[in-house]
């Protein structure tokens, strides 16, 4: 009796409140997005909104079940659960169901489940278990290797299912790793590489090289803060010359051949060498390595892009970068989604009044593009409230994480934070055209049992763990 | 080194990401309006509701022009998706070649920017109602295809084509000059249809529907709250007596020329015929394309509305005008006699036919004496009251203008022309300043030379005489569905000549038709008991045989009809124009014809192709 009372008191009710609000918001949004007059009851089981209430109900049961479990179970079960889910992934690869080009579904009767969703929990628990072990140091080589295997195996399996979106979610574990001691430079490096990738695709070679040169000089100057004033003159002359070169090239429309570009490399390297000769060799070397590796990466991007990416991935990237306009083809989804959200204005069209989602102009309007319904029917104001709710939830999770005595709970909390944040940010960004379309659901709102159960389970495992803080 | 907790950095980074998302959301939802517009175009289908065009009745409430529903298949070029051409052909019962040709034509037009990508453009016209309903059901299979039901004109009358005008689809100019019109709308061209376009067209309405991504209509947008009903065009009652119009056209068969009949006490046009005539149905929606060019290329120019456009020389009819001016200016009296020896032999001279001499004013009209009017005209122009010929000639012009000559009468007939009236400047240019005298312009005395009157002006002149000195502006529409007509048509326009003087010339006109014995120039216009007062004219025509003209009104007291008739290249006025006019008068006043032989002779006569240019 006493123990029961303690649990109820220790539970983070604010988080639960936000969770319930989000889940029911999702239910109403699904109702609105697939609403038709023939099936106007929100409990009509032949429709998605009718089904969603079943998912919600079972998710609640799952939440209660988790809260009733012994906390120790989570640590004990980490390894078996991880291995079991891995097995499921392999099984899916062998005899799974293919929907929308991804072979990531398991059919149990008429219900389709996606084991890759559950893998997120299993991996989080596994990572928390491993990292929280006594004597674990993230900087040690064997430990790093261990972690790499824990993350890489499921990611690889999911990639093999051609479910790139879910695979990308695993990159959110970087946030947890960062918190647990990984150097921030790794994340900066990854961000730098993705920016470099996009820039290389968007801009012609010469411009890219120019930008990299400027960046290298900047880095060099930052490293050589003391000789900044001496070098500034030379740098100024060089940058002026570069700008002039770009200007002449653009104005005169001269096609500069690759060997000219190489000539510029040599000139730049020489210049950097001359400037840096007076400085320390190490700094000079760093700048030079940075420059040449960047150029190398930039040059190989085209090759990677053309030879390693799948056509639909290329299309999505090209659409996002506005490299071409194909509103009837792959760009259709994003364009329609933007139209739907954009038509909401400040206060939206009103409940059930959204024409774009209701009349199926927006594809997948109840799953990945559920945010369109929010945008269209409740407008900017509604979007702000929804985003506010998510942000509150995320802040709450960090708060929970930081008040733990046990590393296991904290690590698991950061995993939850990472996965939720990734889903939330990536899903909304793709509906408004900030990033390419990556097919992942909006947590708690999107239609579907697998994702709702996963997010519910993660959140309530965390809440249960939190009761033992 | 500054130490910041890693959890703070994580939250800070998350906030930056959220901030980026919110800014983008703010941009597409609040700042950029384009998405909202596109959403409307996406999901709303604006179906134009076409109003029925107003009907046109004749003065006796017989329907002349009514409506019939036509069905077209239209496309919005940019919405066209893939579809089965064969199935389309099958539904519409068309051959594949025809379909392909229509599609290529459309593509060509589209490429040449003839049509905008968002505009509904007809692609197959005039399909049957069966094909229309069948296609309507299969519409969802043909993205970008729509149907259009609209009302086209149906003509119950076979006459008055130039009076009624016709309607066509609007062209680029129409659309740019009035934003009411959209591609595919109809607009009146020519005649009543053009002049009363705003009354007849009504007001288009719109029904807004929501549609889904497959172009299937879902529901009425906002339950029709933003719809507007089409307002039917107003019905017009025109002044035409269709029986008289038909009869006139029958008489003018195989003749080139014009008849205008006006009711003097109202100015209403009873008949307005421009011959050669044609059936107005030739220019209806189904036939216009094939017939329009044919009519345009016809050497007798049926599309040229002679009644209001052609400046015929008035010939001897104009003597009445000069008599009226002379009387008003006191340069002649009814008892002024002038002798005539086969003409006026001063200067180049003007010939005359043989008739008793001398004649007074009444008889000069009765016998149409040329010499008498040479004297009269010179008396007017050389009147010592005026300092110069410029002053006296301007005075003469002023009189003529008050009769309605040389300017548009401001009627409601579409395309009315000025006619021709000389000015002092005309003769300055011709002869040199101060180098012309009354004799130089003596042709004007007998209605020849630099003067031209449209049949409408001549008929109006007759109505003026019938009214003894005033006219109502001739008009073709009597009533606009109870709204009445412009008040300008109810105002009397007095001429510069006193009523008393009119009575004097009427005696001559009466005699011209009814006078017995030698010299009644218009005996062929005589009809017993009708008291027709008229005047013949033989308008000299440098291009061919003279135009036969006659103008009259009847009866003498309380006149009910004024008529002007021109028959091109037909010779003497008495030979053709006079009997035609009298038949018109008789038909209108009595409803019967007492001289079937005359009627038959006229109907059977072919006076076409007598002009020199063949």
Summary of the model, kept short:
The complex is a heterodimer of chains A (469) and B (614). Chain A is mainly α and 469 residues long. Chain A is 72% helix and 3% strand.
Describe this structure in words.
- The complex is a heterodimer of chains A (469) and B (614).
- Helices cover 72% and strands 3% of the residues of chain A.
- Chain A is mostly helical.
- Chain A folds into 2 domains: 2-180 and 334-359 and 367-466, no CATH class; 203-309.
- A 3-stranded antiparallel β-sheet of chain A has the order 1-2-3.
- Chain A is globular, with a radius of gyration of 26 Å.
- The two termini of chain A are 20 Å apart.
- Chain B is α+β, with helices and mostly antiparallel strands.
- Chain B folds into 2 domains: 46-238, Penicillin-binding protein 2a (Domain 2) (Alpha-Beta Complex); 242-295 and 307-604, DD-peptidase/beta-lactamase superfamily (Beta-lactamase), CATH 3.40.710.
- Helix content of chain B is 35%, strand content 18%.
- Chain B has 21 helices and 20 strands.
- At the A-B interface, helix 8, helix 15, helix 17 and helix 18 of A face helix 1 and helix 2 of B.
């Amino acid at each position: 009796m006493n123990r029961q009372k303690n649990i109820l008191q220790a539970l983070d009710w604010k988080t639960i409140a936000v969770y319930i609000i989000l889940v029911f918001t999702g239910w109403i949004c699904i109702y609105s997005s697939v609403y038709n007059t023939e099936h106007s009851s929100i409990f009509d089981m032949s429709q998605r909104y009718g089904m969603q209430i079943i998912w919600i109900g079972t998710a609640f049961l799952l939440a209660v079940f988790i809260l009733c479990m012994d906390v120790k179970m989570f640590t004990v079960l980490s390894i078996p659960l991880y291995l079991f889910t891995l097995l499921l992934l392999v099984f899916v690869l062998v005899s799974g169901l293919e929907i929308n080009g991804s072979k990531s579904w398991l059919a149990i009767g008429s219900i389709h489940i996606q084991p890759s969703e559950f893998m997120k929990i299993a991996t989080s628990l596994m990572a928390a278990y491993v990292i929280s072990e006594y004597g674990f140091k993230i900087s040690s080589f064997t430990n790093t290797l261990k972690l790499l295997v824990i993350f890489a195996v499921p990611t690889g399996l999911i990639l093999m299912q051609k479910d790139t979106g879910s695979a990308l979610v695993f990159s959110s574990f970087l946030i947890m790793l960062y918190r647990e001691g990984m150097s921030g430079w790794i994340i900066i490096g990854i961000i730098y590489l993705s920016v470099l990738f996009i820039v290389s695709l968007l801009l012609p070679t010469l411009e890219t090289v120019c930008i990299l040169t400027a960046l290298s000089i900047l880095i060099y100057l930052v490293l050589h803060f003391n000789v900044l004033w001496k070098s500034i003159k030379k740098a100024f002359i060089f940058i002026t010359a570069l700008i002039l070169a770009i200007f002449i090239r653009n104005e005169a429309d001269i096609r500069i051949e690759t060997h000219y570009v190489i000539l510029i490399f040599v000139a730049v390297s020489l210049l950097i060498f001359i400037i840096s000769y007076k400085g320390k060799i190490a700094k000079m070397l760093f700048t030079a390595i940075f420059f040449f590796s960047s150029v190398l990466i930039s040059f190989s991007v085209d090759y990677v892009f053309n030879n390693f990416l799948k056509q639909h991935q290329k299309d999505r990237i090209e659409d996002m970068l506005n490299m071409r306009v194909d509103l009837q083809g792959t760009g259709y989804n994003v364009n329609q989604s933007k139209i739907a959200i954009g038509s909401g204005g400040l206060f939206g069209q009103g409940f059930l009044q959204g024409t774009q989602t209701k009349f199926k102009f927006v594809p997948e309007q109840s799953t990945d593009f559920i945010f369109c319904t929010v945008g269209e029917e409740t407008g900017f104001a509604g979007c702000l409230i929804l985003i506010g709710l998510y942000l509150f939830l995320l802040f709450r999770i960090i708060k929970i994480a930081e008040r733990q005595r046990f590393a296991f709970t904290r690590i698991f909390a950061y995993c939850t934070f990472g996965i939720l944040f990734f889903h939330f940010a990536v899903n909304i960004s793709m509906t408004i055209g900030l990033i390419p379309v990556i097919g992942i659901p909006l947590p708690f709102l999107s239609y579907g049992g697998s994702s709702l159960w996963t997010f519910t389970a993660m959140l309530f495992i965390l809440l249960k763990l939190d009761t033992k803080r | 080194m500054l130490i910041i907790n890693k959890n703070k950095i994580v939250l800070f980074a998350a906030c930056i990401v959220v901030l980026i998302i919110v800014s983008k959301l703010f941009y597409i939802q609040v700042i950029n309006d384009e998405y909202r517009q596109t959403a409307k175009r996406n999901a709303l289908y604006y179906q134009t509701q076409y109003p029925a065009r107003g009907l046109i009745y004749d003065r006796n409430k017989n329907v002349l022009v009514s409506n019939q529903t036509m069905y077209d298949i239209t496309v919005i070029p940019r919405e066209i998706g893939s579809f089965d051409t064969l199935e389309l052909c099958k539904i519409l019962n068309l051959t594949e070649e025809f379909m392909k040709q229509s599609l290529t034509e459309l593509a060509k037009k589209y490429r040449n920017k003839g049509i905008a990508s968002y505009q509904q453009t007809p692609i197959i016209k005039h399909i049957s109602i069966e094909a229309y309903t069948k296609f309507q059901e299969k519409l969802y299979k043909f993205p970008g295809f729509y149907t259009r039901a609209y009302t086209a004109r149906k003509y119950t009358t076979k006459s008055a084509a130039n009076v009624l005008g016709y309607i066509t689809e609007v062209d680029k100019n129409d659309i740019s000059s009035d934003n009411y019109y959209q591609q595919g709308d109809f607009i009146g061209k020519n005649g009543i249809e053009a002049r009363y376009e705003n009354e007849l067209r009504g007001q288009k309405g719109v029904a807004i529907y929501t549609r889904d991504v497959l172009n299937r209509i879902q529901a009425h947008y906002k339950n029709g709250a933003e719809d507007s009903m089409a307002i039917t065009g107003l019905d017009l009652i025109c002044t035409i007596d269709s029986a008289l119009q038909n009869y006139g056209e029958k008489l003018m068969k195989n003749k080139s020329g014009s008849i205008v009949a006006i009711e003097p006490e109202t100015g209403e046009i009873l008949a307005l015929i421009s011959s050669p005539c044609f059936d107005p149905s030739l220019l209806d929606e189904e036939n216009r394309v094939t017939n329009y060019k044919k009519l345009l290329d016809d050497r007798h120019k049926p599309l040229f509305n002679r009644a209001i456009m052609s400046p015929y020389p008035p010939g001897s009819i104009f003597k009445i005008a000069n008599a009226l001016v002379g009387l008003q200016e006191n340069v002649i009296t009814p008892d002024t006699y002038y002798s005539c020896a086969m003409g006026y032999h001063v200067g180049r001279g003007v010939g005359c036919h043989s008739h008793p001499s001398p004649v007074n004013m009444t008889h000069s009209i009765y016998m149409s004496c040329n010499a008498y009017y040479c004297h009269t005209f010179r008396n007017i122009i050389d009147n010592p009251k005026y300092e110069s010929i410029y002053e006296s000639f301007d005075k003469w012009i002023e009189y003529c203008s008050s009769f309605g000559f040389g300017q548009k009468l401001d009627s409601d007939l579409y395309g009315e022309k000025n006619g021709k009236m000389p000015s002092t400047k005309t003769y300055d240019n011709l002869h040199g300043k101060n180098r012309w005298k009354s004799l130089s312009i003596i042709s004007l005395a007998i209605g020849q030379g630099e003067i031209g009157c449209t049949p409408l002006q001549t008929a109006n002149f007759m109505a003026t005489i019938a009214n003894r000195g005033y006219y109502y502006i001739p008009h073709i529409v009597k009533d606009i569905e109870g709204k009445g007509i412009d008040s300008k048509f109810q105002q009397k326009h007095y001429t510069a000549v006193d009523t008393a003087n009119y009575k004097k010339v009427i005696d001559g006109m009466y005699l011209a038709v009814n006078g017995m014995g030698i010299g009644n120039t218009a005996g062929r216009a005589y009809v017993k008991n009708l008291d027709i007062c008229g005047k013949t004219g033989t308008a000299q025509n440098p291009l061919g045989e003279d135009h036969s003209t006659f103008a009259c009104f009847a009866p003498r007291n309380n006149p009910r009809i004024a008529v002007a008739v021109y028959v091109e290249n037909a010779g003497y006025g008495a030979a053709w124009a006079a009997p035609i006019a009298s038949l018109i008068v008789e038909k209108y006043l009595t409803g019967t014809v007492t001289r079937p032989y005359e009627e038959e002779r006229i109907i059977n006569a072919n006076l076409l192709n007598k002009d020199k240019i063949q």
